[in-house]
Amino acid sequence: MNSKIGNIEILSPICVIVLNLGKKFKLGNSKIFIVEDDLLYSKMLNHKLSMDTELDITIFNDGESLLKKLHLKPNVITLDIRLPDISGLELLKKIKKDFPTIQVIVLSGQDDLAKAVEIIQSGAYDYILKDSNSMEKIWHAVHQANEKRELYNEVELLSTEITAKYNFRKYIKGSSAPMQRVFSLLEKSSRANITVTINGETGTGKELAAKAIHFNSDRMKKPFVAINVAAIPKELIESELFGYEKGAFTGADQARAGKFEEANNGTVFLDEIGEMSLSMQSKLLRALQEREIVRLGSNKVIPINVRIIVATHRDLLQEVKEGRFREDLYYRLLGIRLELPPLKERGNDIVLLAKSFVSEFCRENKLTTKDFSQDALDKLMKYSFPGNVRELKAIVEVAMVMSDSPILEADDILFNKRLDVDDFIQEELTLDEYNGKIIKGYLLKYNNNVAKVSDKLQIGKSTIYRMIKEGKC
Amino acid sequence: MDFTQNDNSKTFYSLAQIEALAGLDSTFVTEIIETFKIVTPNYLDQIRDGLFSKDFKAIQHAAHQMKPTMDILEIAGAMELVREIEMDAMRQNPNAAKLEHDFKQIKQIITAVIQDLEIRFKKN
To answer: Which residues of B touch A48 (CB under 8 A)?
Structure first.
């Protein structure tokens, strides 16, 4: 005998009544799953929860059906403790194992305190008895659980955004050959738990690179703690890195964890490691070797698990040779060496970056976008950018502010110093060496296009080939 | 107790909770009543079959499932009976005679409720 009640088809009065599985009764923002094999109770519950039009409700009458749709990641599940195919407790454990942030409210017809405790300890958000007040209780519990889940969703979304933000190729812009090598090393660095030493002039993006490595590694959900060693007075660096106990020194009114503890299981980024004093270097070496620290004024050893990324504009090997950097620490930090090229060696990246800074500025300040004139771009391409990317950004932003026209002209591009000449002659090279440098610079700029370089410099292609063959450029 | 009364002044069940939940939606009340009229006899059949085949687990399950509905409709005496049936079926050595007796009682109650509902909703 078949009959129909509303939109539910009863296949047989004796068999288990099958609901229209997965049928959504209302569209809304938060997905709620009801798992209930009693038809009457599920209708009552659905009707109650449907009063909130922002809840998107789906009903299941057994555990198997739910498990098939769990990948839809509902915010909240109301779960009957007794289902025909699986115990509610077992199902709860499965849900929490695979999707720990889904909030589960367990409903039971039995007032069993021991069971309730076991259910809550297994990760249920709440345990509600199916009595005359249960509809109201479930309503409130679902809304509170939903709020909790929304917070988890927000955190997940922010984590994803952070990862997207530090996606190598999206936010570290560059298509030049030197940058392709950097991207390759960044990817390799993020995959392995290995120390990275980042070399580069000021403004080349050392911290950005360090963050990119961290937020693309398996430590991405753990802290990233950056310390600029040069910015901290030498007498305070130890307490800053390792923390201190109350009374460890004058002014230590309470205990404080250091950066290594803060970063535990995450990444510590030591910027300008070359500025660290020798005595502090030895303490750092010990911490890295023993994987433990001791706060100032304490005897207690604290184990640490951090990934180290260091950066410097100095040549550390040279510093070692000149006795300013410990050799053993140098070799301890010798993992992947990442060289960030100065902007002047990145060729057309200057244009790429300049245009992206214009877009970013317009977006942030709600302005109409501007373009560069060819003269402006040529002017940028000729400059040496001692401040690298940071300086380029500043120059573009000033140009955006000062220009009243939709096109940024050469006159809008203002540098802090005269173009290059002083830097150039200070090196005191031979004329042949200067020529080699110029040709090398142009080859980098024009992606080794000899014909183009020959045209720009008004010299023969054979001259360029000869210089290349002789290793002068 | 006479479970065959259908005089509204001496109701042995109540639709108050369902009506409160339904609000202005009278079709919801009808839907719930119709569901009750199909689902509850099914549970009774499961208890009856369980008694016949001495499947006490099935009896316990059906009784457990019936409990919330008895509560929602506030059926006089039914909640206690169903609870008794559930507890008795869970025992090490269930008392079949007592179960049989309680089953007859609950069946009488439910039958009376359904009859009354049919009259009441046909009238409306």
So the answer is: 21
Q: What is the ipTM score, two decimals?
A: 0.86
- Position A10 pLDDT exceeds 60: no
Give residue-wise pLDDT tens across range A228-246.
Answer: 999 999 889 999 999 999 9
Is the fold of A3-161 the same as that of A170-339? yes
Question: What CATH class has B8-123?
Answer: mainly alpha
Query: What are the chain B neighbours of A38 within 8 Å (beta carbons)?
Result: 39, 65, 68-69
Q: Which CATH architecture has domain A170-339?
A: 3-Layer(aba) Sandwich (3.40)
Give whole-number Cα distances, A69 to A35, A55, A62, A99, A182, in Å. 12, 17, 12, 12, 42
Which A residues, 124 through 143, put their C-beta within 8 Å of a C-beta on chain B? 130-132, 134-135
Q: Copy the structure tokens of residue A169.
A: 């190729």
Angle at which helices A39-49 and B56-72 pack, to 10 degrees? Answer: 40
Percentage of chain A modeled with pLDDT above 90: 52
Q: Is pLDDT above 80 for A26? A: no
Which amino acid is it at A143? H
Domain spans of chain A, in order of start: 3-161, 170-339, 343-412, 427-469
Total Cβ atoms within 10 A of residue A215: 21
Q: CATH number of the domain at A343-412, please?
A: 1.10.8.60
Least confident span in A40-44, A64-68, A235-239, A249-253: A249-253
